[in-house]
Amino acid sequence: MKLNRREFLALTGKTAAGAVIFAACGLPERELIVQSPVDLPEDLVRGEDAWYATSMGDFTNGDGVLVRVMQGRAKKIEGNPDHPVNRGKATARYDAPLQLLYHPDRLQNPQIRYSKSGNAVDISWDQASTRFEQALKNANGSLTVVTNPLRGHLGSVASKFAAQYSGKHMTFDSTEQGVLHGAVKSVFGHDQLPTFDIANAQTVLSFGADWLGTWGSPAQFGVKYGEFREQHDRGYFIHAEPRMSLTAAAADLWLAPRPGTEGVLALGIARFIITERLASQPNIDAFNAAVTGGLNDYGIVDVANRTGIHFDRIEKAARHFAEHTPSVAFGGGSAGAHTNGSFNLGAIFALNLLVGAVDSKGGITANPSSALKDIPASATGASFEAWEAELAQWRAGNVETVIIRGANIVHGMPNSVNVREALSHVPNVIAFGAVLDDTMDVADLVIPEQTFLEAWNTEIPEPGPGYQVVGTQQPVVGPTISHDESGLISDARGFGDTLLAMSDGSYGSSMERLVKDSLSDLHSTGSGSISASNATLFTNGALQRGGWWDTNKGGSSKIGTIAGSAETAKFSATDSLGTGDDFALIPFQSNSLGDGRLAAAPWAQQTPDPISSASWSTWAEINSVQAKELGIKEGDVLLIRSTSGEIEVLAYPHPGVRPGIIGIPIGQGHHASGRYAEDRGSNVLSILVDVKDSETGALAWAATRVRVQRAGKRVKVPKFEGNVEARPVEPGVPILVVGVGETAHDAQEANHHLYQKNFLLEGEGADDHE
Amino acid sequence: MLIPVLAIGGLGVLAVMGVVAAFVITGWIGQPVPVLGFEQTFDQPIDFPHTIHASLKQLDHVAADGETMEGLGLDCTFCHRTVTTQPNAGVPPVGFCATCHQVIGSADNEQINILRDAADIIGDDGKEAVNWKRVHRLPDHVRFVHEPHIRYLTQNPSAVKGTTDGVTEGPAGVCSTCHGNVAAMQQVEQVESLKMGQCVDCHRDNGAPTDCVACHH
Lengths: 770, 217
Fold this sequence. Notes:
The complex is a heterodimer. Chain A is α/β, with parallel strands linked by helices. In chain B, helix 1 (2-9) crosses helix 2 and helix 5 (94-101) packs across helix 6 (110-118).
């Protein structure tokens, strides 16, 4: 067959096309692979998951969680629907502890540092135990056990262990809540934080506390907030805070007072209510009995001048609070973190007396004492004043051994008290933890600690739901074999079990035994959520449900007076800080990192802040108008200088901040905290100035004034916001406008297109919307 | 278009096109003709004989000692452990195979030694997985779950099709409905079309749901 050139080319092309078509009919080889893995545990073969109920004490205020475990590995943490506090709901922090459990930098073995400036080297548990025993040998009367505020059995064991050696149990909380506990005690006579019946309130008035994001028990409050908004008229929510937190963003009326004037604002509201006779006489009498200083100085115009809030808005808040009852008022967070913090919170809580909200539906509900003997149901950090005294003892060489767990005191205290230097005077610093932190980094003996997913404990939530609750914490996973099967990921032990092993045995042999014995004691009371014929069945029932609770065991209040006569907040000086502009610094807890204890977990790092949508960094919220005046643009590196030191942060101009305020998230700036957190961002706690609440001696962590200067550099703020252009339906027209007394559903039902049309043509409809 | 084609090759080209069309139509309706890589089987990384493991009959193989071999008669679920509980039948892990083959099988059997190497019984390159080639594969938009099919057929033996040289009792007795007589296969191949028509026919015959979302979900 003879082919000419044209036929040859045509046939070649067709052959090639045919080959391509036939090849395309086949499957990619990877689609066909079915793998025989090397080894397979039996439960992988079955592919079934198991859910264990436990409590998360270290990263929440005692929420009940369910952990999904597959092939012996914890995979997911969800809210426990049975648990009375969070009722199946979760917060942004729930999942991150899984990454501490399986962290690539998790401490594998105990480590020892032979000299204060030396490197830590791995040692065996036997060697660590010997070193621990030596440290305790000479520590009688000179031992300090430092922990985060602990309730439940772990708190009890830590206190008893310290007592056994005639030592101290010091608790540390970087954003101190001692002022809050003090105010609750003085106004309501409660030993535990009360619960706020937000769900049944018509008006909620809160000050300073970001209770939907980070303060108190956000999962509990979030559930209640949902119920509050499900009411026919959606309720009315007023929030006073200098910066727009997640909570402020959810409010119907946001008031941004000058920092430290929250108490003045509360008394201004009270005076207006009393002057306008919006409260009953018995309630007014009860209020006047509690607020002994009187209200002469709190005329609404004067209060408006002092707080920087227009008197119309103060009046509106006061009228809503008094006329739409039940109402509840509470405060915390930055409102209590001033030199007049006790006064502020006392005045805020006293507002409840004006509307008869104490121990009533839709108001403040007392929480009862612990259901377990000798087991604390409430805990807060020791005051900064007490800490300064303790650090002086360390420096003086009067403390032989310090045991630290769950309290990153090097990171959490201001530079001015120099904890690192104080620790250098303590011969034996023993630190527990899962992943190295700044404090463990200077310890003489580092002990790998089990996470809450591996250890036994009980957790009494605070604030509780208004009745007795004992949450159980049980190991949901066993030790994890390392990837190369050479050993365990971490040969960790529980903090409680380690202390008990070193104790004289008089207060327990193991945490498991302590927990189970306490559950047996609860069984013998014959009351509560679990009925069982014997203690073993009762214990199993409690562990399966995540705890025990008795809805019939409530608390009661005993009204007192507000503590704190210091009405005016004082701030640190800035005179000597060089060039720049002065701002009041409001540090705030990160939604996901907390005070930094979850910084090592990348899931927590990458969770966007709910307001700025920023992550993985430290930024500074600054009023956008003021930023423009000062020539500050987003991403400008700012030097934030106080008398305690200087940090660098990225500017984030934002309309939701009061001018003169700079809001900086807590949680970054670790020198040691695993590969994901080390040397990331800045530690705002380090530049706080050691000014204190005049009543409790707590650190006034919102009373630092700083001088802000541009560093002359700019870095892109890592954030989601603005990456995708927003596209309104019609320019300038809101998608949905919800009026007062109207639910979102109502507004939607009313045909929002028509609503928008009216809005455009008549300019009506927005009058009631803040 | 047709005229120039005919002009180049005439009837020969027409015949080729006819063969191609027949090939495509055959593949569309049932299974393509097993040529040009369209065979319904694959060479596997290890020549695993289902005959020796699953059959209960006398085999053609001759053992290392010269004895004729009889099939071991393992139940299918001995290795495919999840077939009665999970969507996938599952293939056994290397360690599972090595449980027996650590000692069973001649030390110079090349095929068994591939497995021993993977299980790190011999060699010094550590443990490694074995990547088998999937013979029975459904499209991505089909969700086939073994468990209910095995359960139904086990409870309704009259619906089972085909026969097996292996175990006929329990779940192992029903595999032949879709997979043919695997116990007689030296190298596993697909014998049924496993096309939608076959699925729908069987569902209709047995009163199983025939709505789309039964499989496409």
